[in-house]
Specification:
Layout: H1 18-23, H2 31-54, H3 59-71, H4 75-79, E1 82-88, H5 109-123, E2 126-138, E3 146-156, E4 159-170, E5 173-179
Length: 182
Amino acid sequence: MAANDPSYPQQPPDVPSPSDEQKQPRKKVPPGWLLAPLFLLMAGTCAYSYISTSLHDPVPGIVNQYYTAVKNQDYATAYGYLGEHIITTKNVQPNPNRMFPDGQPFLTQPYFIQAAQDTDTADGKVRTFRIVNSGLLLDSQSNGNLTATATVSITRNGVPYSVHLNLEQIGDAWEIVGYDQF
């Protein structure tokens, strides 16, 4: 009854003393919460890697390798970057014994090398090259394969000119399937 009596002094509520706080056990973080930031970091790294690989444009690398071989007059290596069904508007002597069903000439390595050497003799060796632009396309005429174009500025004997390349992804490899000049 004294507790309800207004004349009886009220006791302050229980406030823990500093020594009581030190004695209370600290709340433990579940182990899963400690690993969560690590898993988020790993997931983010994987996502970045996947996206950057998927969106990577391989065309400049192929074009650079091709023209580095041409510049070094290593035409056998350069020919390796050409697709099996290369179409060129360059006046390259075709092999009369090897034609595609649509009448396009089959550009063999010896004919490619001869045409490249003839171009070097007539116009000079490739001194510099620079990719002006390149772009990936999805072309329905290429059986759903990825295709790309590239414009390259070539300089021979101080005279720059543009070359237009067409590329296609065949399986995992990119190949040059068309060009308008060396």
